[in-house]
Design brief:
Blueprint: E1 3-11, H1 17-25, E2 32-33, H2 39-42, E3 46-47, H3 62-78, E4 87-93, H4 98-107, H5 119-126, E5 130-135, H6 140-153, E6 159-166, H7 170-177, E7 202-210, E8 219-228, H8 238-252, E9 261-263, H9 272-283, E10 293-295, H10 298-301, H11 308-322, E11 324-325, E12 342-343, E13 349-350, E14 355-362, E15 366-373
Parallel strand pairs: 4-5, 4-6, 9-10, 9-14, 10-12
Antiparallel strand pairs: 1-7, 1-8, 2-3, 6-7, 8-15, 11-13, 14-15
Helix pairs in contact: 3-5, 8-9
Length: 375
């Protein structure tokens, strides 16, 4: 059954939700020199950092702090009462607090193993007793959203706080540094000359409640389609993406041609972008229709791993509410597979989309596609 987003909050390198959306409309980005890690050692020069305080020293457990702040805000703004209502939290993440393990191993920073998950951070922020962490790569936020909707449908919760958080780790930076000859300057989604992905810091949270006719919300989540194709450790599979899209449409009782906006995964990598572009062209823009507008946000905020799906969802909600679709920051010349798509380039497009698709694809074929509708 559909559910309502009662409140939403994000943290990115560009700021909170309002600041991030305004920066996206302006074509701005938050890419800068890599912090906290030896750039030469990992062969990565830049990143999309959230700067805490002065930014001179790396605070501990940064992802937990951002998540706690987002959770506090959405619980307050939604009006749910964690004392009298059955409120469950589901948090998606790619790496949890792996950075704390790295710092413990290198410089002996104190580490309490229970802090590697986000249960303590969420309980401390909102008093929620039942907290589940979903650690399944870059589709984690989408999977958390799907589980939240299931909890509501089954009557296992009155409201669900859906969260996501990740911060850069030296091990993940080293991995992306190994696949490029030269360090990537910026993420350029769907660009012919894309140089690869860069990581971004961030967190997100939203409150999902039943669409019972009594609650007010920002937008309606119709469904999230999932697939886990296990095609390859890192390479995407077109069929896995297709199955997630079809699953979302069938669960929502819609057809894919109803989609008039896609907030794409768009990692700026050699394999993801053409695979995703082809899937959009074949399944959403077929039959002579102009197809949906297509945008993506990683050129502006980097790849925020497990938080990526909820960051894209928050932007999709703003597009539905405000009638302006931001450009794909960093896109100059579209790759050949995307030249027939309605990629938003250069400046925002005024539009009144009613149904948005949010893509999130993770390593191992952990795919999540969410359909969200304007109210």
């Amino acid at each position: 059954m559909p559910a309502l987003i009662a409140a939403s909050a994000i943290r990115t390198c560009l700021g909170d939700a309002a600041q991030t959306y305004a920066a996206l409309l302006a074509g701005a980005h938050g890419c800068g020199p890599l912090r906290y890690v030896d750039a030469d050692r990992v062969h990565v020069a830049n990143g999309y950092h959230v700067v805490d305080g002065t930014g001179e020293a790396e605070p501990p457990l940064r992802a937990s702090g951002w998540l706690a702040d987002c959770v506090t805000r959405v619980v307050r703004e939604s009006g749910v009462d964690t004392r009298t209502q059955r409120v469950v939290a589901v948090v998606g993440t790619g790496l949890r607090e792996l950075r704390a393990v790295e710092r413990w191993a290198v410089d002996g920073m104190p580490l309490a193993t229970e802090r590697l998950h986000f249960g303590g951070a969420v309980r401390g922020a909102a008093g929620i007793v039942e907290v589940h962490t979903v650690a399944n790569a870059c589709g984690a936020g989408g999977y958390a959203l799907a589980l939240a909707q299931d909890l509501l449908d089954l009557g296992e919760a009155d409201a669900v706080v859906v969260g996501a958080a990740d911060t850069m780790t030296e091990s993940m930076l080293a991995m992306i540094g190994r696949v490029t000859e030269e360090p990537t300057d910026r993420v350029r989604p769907f660009d012919e000359d894309r140089g690869g992905v860069l990581l971004g810091d961030g967190a997100a949270a939203l409150v999902l409640v039943p669409d019972d006719g009594r609650s007010r919300g920002l937008a309606r989540v119709l469904a999230t389609g999932l697939s886990c194709d296990a095609y390859h450790e890192t390479a995407p599979a077109s069929d896995g993406i297709r199955r997630a899209m079809v699953d979302a449409a069938e669960r929502a009782g819609r057809v894919l041609s109803d989609v008039d906006l896609v907030v794409a995964h768009g990692t700026g990598t050699r394999l993801n972008d053409p695979t995703e572009a082809e899937a959009i062209a074949v399944h959403l823009a077929a039959g002579g229709t102009p197809g949906p507008l297509v945008t993506g946000i990683k050129g502006a905020i980097g790849h925020t791993s497990g938080a990526a799906a909820l960051h894209s969802l928050a932007v999709a909600v703003e597009c539905l509410r405000q009638g302006a679709v931001p450009p794909v920051v960093g896109l100059r010349t579209p790759l050949k597979e995307g030249r027939d798509l309605r990629l938003v380039r250069g400046s925002p497009v005024r539009s009144e989309p009613s149904l948005a698709q949010v893509d999130a694809f993770g390593f191992g074929g952990v795919n999540a596609v969410t359909l969200v509708e304007a109210l």
